[in-house]
Design brief:
globular; mainly beta
């Protein structure tokens, strides 16, 4: 009986050695921010705005499957509002001035759409899997300032 108890204890200790708690930090192990640090916020007409969800999406060309642009989208559920930034001919870190249709920023509230006529998107860092930067723009009567983001690029 002692042999079986010793054997069971040995198996249990081996099993516990190989069990590790999985981290939910995602790409952070590769040098990027953690999944917990994904955000997008700004000030909209003087009122703080913080997204509930935010993500970046690569836009690829069909001919050679190469990246041609990036779209960054964020939604705030409580106000039914959304900020969408789009850069055609995306080249990574740099300043992109609003210049429709190649660089656009749009603010949505409910079913109303406000297209930016001026402003800029600045990509400040692109650690693996992530895009970080700042933005500001004027869209009709909407003034968006002090925008910052860190999103995963899908």
């Amino acid at each position: 009986m002692k042999k079986y108890a010793l054997f069971a204890l040995l198996l249990l200790s081996i099993g516990l050695t190989f069990c590790k708690k999985k981290s939910n930090k995602g790409p952070a192990a590769s040098g990027g921010p953690s999944l917990d640090s994904i955000y997008m916020h700004a000030t909209v007409n003087g009122t703080p705005w913080r997204a509930d969800t935010a993500a970046g999406y690569s836009v690829t060309g069909s001919a050679n499957n190469y990246q041609t642009g990036i779209s960054i989208t964020a939604t705030q559920k409580s106000t039914a509002s959304q900020v969408v930034l789009y850069i055609t001919n995306y080249g990574g870190v740099g300043t992109y001035n609003i210049d429709p249709p190649s660089v656009t920023a749009t603010y949505y509230v409910g079913n109303k759409r406000y297209y930016a006529s001026s402003g800029q998107i600045i990509i400040t860092n692109t650690p693996q899997y992530f895009v970080q930067g700042t933005y500001s723009f004027v869209a009709d009567s909407i003034n968006i300032t002090g925008g910052t983001f860190t999103v995963i690029e899908h």
